[in-house]
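[09:14] KT: can someone run the structure on this one? pasting the chain below
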Amino acid sequence: MNCFIQKNDIQMHEWLKFNNITTFNILTKCDYISRSEVNKKLAQIEKTFQNQAFAFSSKDTIYKDKILSVFCEYIK
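[09:31] RB: done, structure tokens below
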């Protein structure tokens, strides 16, 4: 397991999956790490949880647009 993914993250994901609740994995505070590190962490999240992960930064809006696009598609 990766040090930034905690046991309670995995437990919550398993509970949501068991209850057929759609999940979106979002890596926050991405403005504090390099883009290559963001990509590595996203890959680790996707491998652990077996679904798509997204980056988010309150300072950098490039991540926000992708998340909003996916959410809008989901609620249609």
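[09:33] KT: thanks! The beta strands are 25-27, 53-55.
[09:34] RB: yep, looked fine to me
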